[in-house]
Amino acid sequence: MAKVDSVIYAGETLWPGILGHFIIILGFVSALLAGYALLKTVASQNNNKTFTAWKKIGTISFYIHGISVLSVISLLLFLLVNKYYEYNYVFDHANETLPIKYIFSAFWEGQEGSFLLWMFWHVILSFIMFSGKNHFKLPALGVMALIQAFLMSMLLGVYLGPEFKLGSNPFILVRDLFNAPIFAKADYLQLLPPMAKGLNPLLQNYWNIIHPPTMFLGFAGLSVPFCFGIAGLLKKDHKGWMKPAMPWVLSCASILGIGLLMGSAWAYEALSFGGYWAWDPVENSSLVPWLLLVAGLHTHLIAKNTGQSIRSTYIFYFLAFLMIVYSTTLTRSGILGDTSVHAFTEMGLEWQLLAFITFFAFLSIALMGKNWKSIPVTEKEEPLQSKEFWMFIGALVLLFSAFLINFTTSIPVYNKLLDVLGNLMGVENMAKYYKSTPLDPIPHYNKFQIWIAVFIGLLSGCAQFLRFKGLNWQHRKKVFTNKILIHTLIAIVFTFLTKMWIQVNAWQYIILLFSGWFTISSNLDYLITSLKGNLKIGASALSHVGFGLLIIGILASGLNQEIITKNVDFSDEDVKEFANEDLMDNVFLVKESPYYLGPFELTYLSDSMDGFDRYYHINIKRKNQQGAIKEEFNLYPSTIYDRTFKSVVSTNPAIRRYPHQDIFAIIYGLPPSHQGTEASQQAEDSIRYESYLTNLSDEIELSSVKVTIGNIINQVVHDEYNYQVGDLGVSLHAMVRDASGRTWHTYPSLLLRGNLLYNYPGHINELALRIKIDDGELENLFSLNQNIKFDTLEMQRGESINTSAGLLTFNDYNRSPDGKLFNQQEGDIAVSTLLDIKIDDQKVQLEPIYYIRDQGGFNVQAYDPIQHLVLRFIKLDPAKETITLLAGKKVLSDEQFKLMISENAPRDDYIVFQAKLFPGINLFWLGGIFMMLGLGLAIWRRIQESNR
Amino acid sequence: MKRVHFIIIGLITLGIGLLISASRDLSTYSSFDDADKTFQKVKIVGTLSKDKEIYYEPTKDPNYFSFYLADAKGREEKIIYLKAKPTDFEQSEQIVLTGKMKNGNFYATDMLLKCPSKYKDEELKLNS
After folding, report:
1. What are the b/e assignments for A641-663, b being 16+ CB within 10 Å?
2. How would residue A215 be classed by pLDDT, with cut points 50, 70 and 90?
3. Contact A103/A81 with Cβ under 8 angstroms?
């Protein structure tokens, strides 16, 4: 289709896009210039004049770049806030219903936005680096500028040929991206808003407001030690850069660590992953750089105290940065699509990302190679009894861990490389050589990482009692041996005690448990005795205690995760063998009927809507062995609808927390009527109805029950209905009676909202009975009331008025009318009037109801079947103490209306429910928090030192 | 050679050993034909047969979900997944299953759905 060039579009706001694209290019060019100039300062450091010149050029360019980045972000936010849907980024990530608090989430939902977030933090960190007083900052910022240039290039959106696009411009217009007939219209813009996609409801969660910026701050932080390292190599000063880099490393390790914990918490409490860590490739790819950074931190400390391990410190920091770029490449190139739940799909940036990582990998390798010989190493061997030796081993073990995780995470990369190889060799299809990720990924990772954790636990437990360079070993030898012995004993005792609490049977896990307690015990000892409780210098001890707690928490919650709702039919030979798999974990809960599971009694009581969420009220009772109730509580797991209520997009667990365990409840299945309009309609279409013509108060005889329509209510009173201003509706009060006299009430309703007619059937699950008003009856039912000629009457209590139907007397108010008459809901305020009407000595009592629901006033008419008198109570005036009534006589001939009744309707009052126990999960969080506190303490200590 | 070099060499050796052991966990994608021949679990990639029955009746059993999947070779088999049916199941473009054949049915123990992403460019379908 040819583009229609002649159309002049109405209402577009084009200047932000043009400006934005210009600033992106400016930001890119200024970053390149800043990089070049700031790196030039190294070569010219002996010539004061050129040095000053380059410094000035570099600094100014960097500031221009920084301001560019901030401006691009502001512009894009401006477009998002004001909903300029002509821009594809806005069209893709915002819509009319997006709450303002999620504007930032919408901003970083897309690739371009998340690159900008990354760059934003780089800019902020760089501005802080500029204020530093060390002479490494200029070349370090030069390297940072180059990183920024690469990142900015991802947004360029410039064509370098017909097929090759450099970057993806966030300011691209929808009509430039798509070729659709709609763009032949000059006013297409007015048609866009309802089509805008908006933020994925899964991501409309408060975690998504804080988790991504924390992660990206951590990612950006990884660049700083990298930049300082490169600066050190360029200046050939291999020790000098380490001091200014240290606070950055500590801050980054703690922020990235907090980010990882937040991700775990999000996964645990809001996403339906069923746990806090799943070894998902995207999770792994943020963990690996963190492990490498922490390894680097340890060799860095060695270097600081002994002058050794400088080479490895360089290598670890370089690897940490390169791994974050590698991770970015993996998650953003679509290569992980098969193996990860939260990867982006491809956007054509693969080659650029590859160039990004290749450039910095070569830069690091080349500079390391060139300087290898000049990096100082001490010829003397570090003694076995020295702290640095064991710290170094620890760092190697972390490297090892990172390496193994990456090996498995990179499987899709091997497949991709196979394709490239196939291409070179001319083989068409390499798919038959593809490897897939392990069948059971979690045990796969666990079985290797467990030994890493054991080593770290033991090493960190022992190394605390050693001194750098093995100082004074002769003297300390005895103390050391004693300490190790004592803590081994303590750890054995605690391992034994823990085994009484949780089941740990495999010997590998027992060893891990021991190593966890060992490091807790010895590090606590170090903290308390050696430092006399001086927390300020106990940062490492605190972090290692945290590590030990984390390990025990993982063991407890991972191994002893107990599915309360395990539901295996052991008489079924086919499924028996799968009893130990993560299958058959759900139970079927019918509304209001308790389900008994061991000590638990689960009851699904009700559900309620709140915005786009539907909360299910689950009552849980836990009993002791005698059957007495030990505790009772309620959980409210929820499901989330998309913005049009078409389908359910996500399910949120609810968690009951105890100090020693969590009870975790989640919904895995819903009746069609709760699955959104689409499934609901489908299910409705498959129900077979019979039609019946009936009158008010007439009895319909079904196979086992009798149905009477007691009343017409001028309002929708159905459970599923939410009031909106302007709604027009009508409900029938249907009473169902069986032979034994049991009665049920249900309220089939019709709603006219705008031009759309909604049908709300009444449903009695116990009888499999479903009653709905035929769609065609709307007019009829309205006119049933409209055809009546109403007289308006204003009455006081005790007053009588003569009407055409007889003498009407207002006897009294009733402040608690029968809720069944109008499907009473929580929060309703209702009052009825007790009236009677007398004609020829016949007296009939009538009770019209007035009620307020959701700030709207409604009434339920009263009907006298003898005189066919209809009374409606429409107003209550508290000041005058009067009521206003409408009274009229029904015209009999119009009265019949059509009902559709099914006596074989499927249930719609159930949920498929799962509940689990996570014992010791709090140890995991506590451990994580301790590790971070330790790092925080170390930062604080360094700030204090530098102020002195 | 310093002691640390020996340790590094030792660790590298151990690493290679672990990697070999780790790579045994990696599997190749199989077909139903392969699954017939083994009692072990296999991993199969395929597409949902949309014309065949997709059965999930929680009122009868909340942990029984069955459907038909065509593997890469086009062979169709009935899949039994002893869990609740995932909400976005029908939209899936590709399904990765882990499991094994039993009595002519494929019992899946794990299922990964690949759904069309919202980032994917799609034509604006509007009859304007």
Report:
1. bbbeeebbbbbbbbbbeeeebbb
2. very high
3. yes
> Which positions in chain A touch B114 (Cβ < 8 Å)?
337-338
Tell which wins on pLDDT, A280 or A210: A210
Phi, psi values for residue B45, rounded to 5°: -105, 135
Domain A1-199 grouped into CATH 3.30.70: no
Residue of B59, B81, B125 lying closest to A906 (CB–CB) = B59
Query: CATH 1.20.120 in chain A, residues?
Result: 1-199
Upper half-sphere CA count for residue A57 (Cβ side, 13 Å): 16
* Tens digits of residue pLDDT in A140-184: 999 999 999 999 999 998 888 777 778 889 999 988 887 778 888
Q: CB within 8 A of A85, min separation 6: which ones?
A: A91, A94, A174, A189, A192, A193, A196
Question: Smallest Cα–Cα separation from A513: which of A467, A576, A562, A558?
Answer: A558
Give CA–CA dist A613/A609, Å, rounded: 6
In angstroms, the Cα distances linking A487 to A388, A493, A537 are: 21, 10, 21
Q: What is the predicted pLDDT for the residue at A271?
A: 61
What sign results for the dihedral spanned by CA atoms A114, A119, A124, A128?
positive
Tokens, residue B104: 């002519």
Residue B88, domain extent: 29-114
Nearby residues of A261 by Cβ (< 8 Å), 6 or more positions away: A925, A928, A929, A932
B40 falls within a domain? yes
Residues β-bridged to residue A609: A614
Cβ–Cβ < 8 Å for A59, A160:
no
The Cβ-side half-sphere exposure at A78, using a 13 Å CA radius, reads 14
pLDDT at A69 over 80: yes
Structure tokens at A329: 């490449």
Nearest Cα to Cα of residue B124 among A197, A5, A2, A179: A179
| B128/A188 Cβ within 8 A | yes
The total of structural domains in chain B comes to: 1
Using alpha carbons only, how large is chain B's radius of gyration in Å?
21
CA distance A463 to A385: 9
A101-142: pLDDT as tens digits: 889 999 998 889 999 999 999 999 999 999 988 889 999 999
CATH number of residue B56's parent domain: 2.40.50.140
Confidence at residue A948, expressed as pLDDT on a 0 to 100 scale: 64
Inter-chain contact B26–A647, Cβ cutoff 8 Å?
no
Task: Identify which of A396, A668, A906 has the shortest CB distance to residue B11.
Answer: A396
Tell me the average pLDDT across A911-921: 90
The CA distance from A650 to A609, in Å, is 15
Minimum distance, in Å, between the CA of residue A62 and any CA atom of chain B:
33
A75 three-state secondary structure: helix
Report the alpha-carbon angle A433-A434-A436, nearest 5.
Answer: 140
* Burial state string for A810-826 with b = 16 or more CB within 10 A and e = fewer than 16: beeeeeebeeebbbbee
Residues with Cβ within 8 Å of A571's Cβ and at least 6 positions away in sequence, in order, are: none
